[in-house]
Amino acid sequence: MNEIVYYSQKDKRWASIPYTKRNDPKQTIATSACGPTSFAMAASTLRDQSILPPETSRFAIDRGYRTDNSGTDWGYFIAASNYYGLACKQTGNFEEVKKALSDGALVIASMGPGHLTGGGHYVLLVGINAKWINVHDPNHSYRYPNDGFVTDVKGDGKIKVDEVVFRREAKQYWVFPQPVKNEEDKPMTATEAKAFEAQQRKVGELESAVTVLALKVKDLEANVPAPKWFVTEFGDKVLEKINDPKGTLDFWRSLAVSLRVQGYKKVV
Fold it and tell me: What's the whole-number mean pLDDT along residues 179-208?
């Protein structure tokens, strides 16, 4: 997998950008765009390109997925995935989520009140180790309860959360599997690389052989003895006047034309 991207919705580059459908100045990316920010992290990672929260937030507003007062509608994630060319599956099954994380997928979770939010919140699940879920929380400065269910809190938004929290507090999930690479994009195995190198050597040998053969053919073409039709028309005597009676077919044709112009007759 590519390095997993992290974005904070409170990043000063976009924190104050409005995220509202009713011109409410209090609704900004910092206060309300946890969903688009989580999606921006997933899309940037899986597409291996920079897809920023202002862009994904604008998509939600323009397509009608920004609600009046409840953040981002659940339907946003499938629509945004289709737009950005990502596979996405919605599920409420946490066992399915754990299997997907083990397979390298990224997962967005819609959280209810509890350890990660006081109301509603979206976070990105990026890995799993036994019962601990690695999480990228777009609200990097949230104060989590100090009860042992959330660890590795450094204020950078990257935390570890006991799976119990998701079993009790998550409402829904959106699974984003790793993009399937085309066969030609996959790296060669050691065996395939060895076979390819052998094939390349054989191609090189064949190219050298063809070059040598072409030179031989060219040499033969340049040393053609007098054609039968030339001898029939002009006889053997004229050949005695040529130092090296060999040449290309064009040479013999040109010589024949010249002799005809001169009125040369066959000597018997």
Answer: 80
Whose structure tokens read 């053919």? 217
Domain contains 95: yes
Q: 234: part of which helix (H) or strand (E)?
A: helix 228-234
Residues 115 and 209 in one domain: no
Does 137 lie in the same domain as 93?
A: yes
Among 66, 36, 65, 33, residue whose Cα is nearest residue 51: 36
Flag whether 24 is in a domain. Answer: no
- How many angstroms separate the CA atoms of 71 and 170, rounded? 16
Assess if residue 207 is contained within a domain.
yes
Each residue's pLDDT tens digit, 65-109? 999 999 999 999 999 999 999 999 999 999 999 999 999 999 999
Which domain covers residue 102, as residue numbers?
29-180
- Provide the residue type at 182 as one letter: N
132-136 vs 158-162, strand pairing mode: antiparallel
> In this structure, how many other beta carbons lie within 10 angstroms of the beta carbon of residue 203?
10
